[in-house]
Amino acid sequence: MSVLICGGAGYIGSHNVRAFKAHGDDVIVVDSLETGHRASVPNDVKFYEGDIRNSEILDKIFTENNIEAVIHFCAYSLVGESVEKPLKYFDNNVGGMISLLEAMQRHDVKRIIFSSTAATYGEPKKVPILETDPTEPTNPYGESKRIMEKMMHWVSSRYDIRYVSLRYFNVAGAWHDGSIGEDHKCETHLIPLILQVPLGKRNHITIYGDDYPTKDGTCIRDYIHVEDLARAHILALEYLRSGGESNIFNLGSGDGYSVMEMINAARKVTGHPIPAQIGERRAGDPARLIADSTKAQNILRWKPEITRMEDIISTAWKWHQSHPDGYMD
Ligand code: UFG
């Protein structure tokens, strides 16, 4: 039996491919390579290039292989772009989920682990955030992920399909040996942008606002290492395998770090002064996003292990130093 990883050539997907392999699962990847990188998937993993909205490729994969479960990472994920082009997001993200669930139903595949996001909550009324808190997304990206969760809910209550939706907070870092990591064509995330300064690719990092109601005025986020995140997917699948019911879990450390603290941690790791300038606030950024992951700790027995920001940034630094121009594909 194999595990199908949809979007396994992306940043988070590729780390999951390695983690599931290391765990002893037989892994198969499908990825359109629109934002993913072929080089991030090991050569001994069976790879299909294609878009999951195409039911023919899904039929081919499900027919040629004995798929036990699907881990679903295919989605556009740029918040700003989603505001500019909402239909592009609904088409790809929601459309992909419809196609995938239909194929699972056609081929009798009963388990799906889904890559969801803290963006489903929108601007939180309180932190830390619980899974039962209101979900009021403030952008089409978060809305598309919430719709995908709801689709799984209704499908699972009608058919014999069970799902786990994992709502990630700020995913960061790279595989421990620096062989794979974050390589986005359009980089918007804080840690890779900070590290572009010591790499000589930018002169300074811009802090998007220092007038938030936080300890140093900069935004606070809950950073989670991508390998800890991958381990949660393995535990989520074990949970479904042992009969667990469909469920939603937050994945974060429960600790918040400000943008300023992240820059200081990166200065320590790289030994570079990393000049910072204060810029305008970025539209739609909540002041604080912190997860309450007690539910994942209690039910999945998951707990993040890499929790020092210096350790998280060190792995990202290892990747960027050894691949200053990413995968170059
Ligand atoms: N930031 C800066 N300067 C930069 C880049 C980011 O100050 O050059 C700040 C942002 O304003 C924010 C923090 O750094 O306060 C983190 O920003 P990221 O873009 O790295 O991450 P986000 O918190 O915006 O986004 C993450 C995920 C999204 C998800 C969102 C949920 O990357 O996919 O959390 O709210 F939608």
Write a brief structural summary.
By secondary structure, the chain is α/β, with parallel strands linked by helices.
Walk me through this protein's architecture.
37% of the residues lie in helices and 18% in strands. The chain is built from 10 helices and 13 strands. Helix 1 (11-22) packs across helix 7 (226-241) and helix 8 packs across helix 10 (309-322). It is globular, with a radius of gyration of 19 Å. Uridine-5'-diphosphate-4-deoxy-4-fluoro-alpha-D-galactose (UFG) is lined by residues 77, 79, 117-119, 141, 170, 188-190, 193, 205-208, 219, 221, 259, 282, 285, 289. Uridine-5'-diphosphate-4-deoxy-4-fluoro-alpha-D-galactose (UFG) binds at residues 77, 79, 117-119, 141, 170, 188-190, 193, 205-208, 219, 221, 259, 282, 285, 289.
In round numbers, the mean pLDDT is 97
Helix/strand order: EHEEHEHHEHEEHEEEHEEHEHH
Task: Please state the overall shape, judged from the principal axes of the Cα atoms.
Answer: globular
The share of residues in helices is 25-40%
Radius of gyration over all CA atoms, rounded: 19 Å
Side by side, the strands of the main sheet go: 3-2-1-4-5-6-11
Sheet with most strands: 7 strands, parallel
The counted number of beta strands is 13
The proportion of residues in beta strands is: 15-25%
Q: Give the helix tally.
A: 10
- Give the low-pLDDT segments: none
Structural class: alpha/beta
Hetero groups in this structure are: uridine-5'-diphosphate-4-deoxy-4-fluoro-alpha-D-galactose
Distance between the termini: 31 Å
